[in-house]
Amino acid sequence: MRLRVIDFGFVPALRSQAIYHGVARALKSGDDPVLTLVNPQTPYVCVGVHQEIGKEVDEEFCKQAGLPIVRRHVGGGAVYLDKNQMFFHFMFPREQVPQYAVNLYPKFIEPAVRTYRELGVNAEYRPVNDIQVAGRKIGGTGAASIGEATVMVGSFMFDFDTATMAKCLKVPSEKFRDKLKMTLDDYMSTMTRELDTLPERETVREKFLRHVGDVFGVTPELTDPTAAELAAIEAEEKALSDPAWTYKKGRKLTDLGVKISEGRQLTESMHKAAGGLIRTHLLAQDGTIESLMISGDFTCLPEDGVDRLAAALAGEKLEAASLEDAIARQVGQLHLDMPGIEPADLARAIMLATGEGV
């Protein structure tokens, strides 16, 4: 198998996201898989596909700091990104990889783990999709379906600005923000923290590509992007910068709220599952779901699956056991892949919005 490698180097913030979105859109069934590498030249805040920006990001700080907010087509949480992170994106035609994301992570993460270890960082894979060293996170990964491609994304953490990250996130108080900064310092690690001498980007790239070759049994081949890929990247820059895409969850919440009238109640809740935080906005009437929005920092494939699930649950009774059964049935019928998120987690998140524990 031929693996094309395209190293875009340092690029502006928006383009760092548009690159893998565009290359994935250009990938067709039967094409060679592609691995892209990129560093953001300018900092920004990136939010997961299922997140509500108003709940997760301090938009006023980002505006004052000149930090763009970009929504990606990959799950996970809001994060501050800058030049000190080198991102890798594996893109395979869908028929060439396992069907479920939980089966993707171990193999696609392995080359990064081996690279860290060769550099002197005692990294290890931690399910569902993290890379840790001595209990601290040194890299997260994510999966998505974009066009005809299955995409796996990850990064090498040369350094990480926890102070700015803490300022980017929405918190209830400045005291809480100070606590968040301390928590990030305790929970996260970087090559700067782990190594006496920081390796050059080219060194990390060379070692990573060698381990990719060993794990996948291929010889990575450095190539230039095709004309079709460059055109797709430009198209994705426009799509990702469209406010209608950036604030899509906010628009759905507004639509949900407009429906409130006599006898209806709009409530919200959140529940932390193994696969991430689940937020719900529930419009209930007479003990049933009238309308529902599910958001959070989890992964759901296909991308629109969580919205289709929420729509399919309209009319279901707000009773824990029957709701869990209904969710399990719909997850199966819709062929949803939500690693680390069980029907019981979704049922609990919804029932918490009613004020009842599960």
Chain-wise SSE layout:
Blueprint: E1 2-11, H1 13-26, E2 34-40, E3 44-47, H2 53-56, H3 59-65, E4 69-71, E5 79-81, E6 85-93, H4 101-119, E7 123-126, E8 130-133, E9 136-140, E10 142-146, E11 149-157, H5 162-168, H6 174-187, H7 191-194, H8 201-216, E12 219-222, H9 227-240, H10 243-246, H11 248-258, E13 265-273, E14 276-285, E15 288-296, H12 305-312, H13 320-333, H14 343-352
Helix pairs in contact: 1-9, 4-8, 5-6, 13-14
Concise overview:
The chain is of the alpha+beta class. The protein has helices at about 15-25, 55, 60-65, 100-120, 160-170, 175-185, 190-195, 200-215, 225-240, 245, 250-260, 305-310, 320-335, 345-350, and strands at about 1-10, 35-40, 45, 70, 80, 85-95, 125, 130-135, 135-140, 140-145, 150-155, 220, 265-275, 275-285, 290-295.
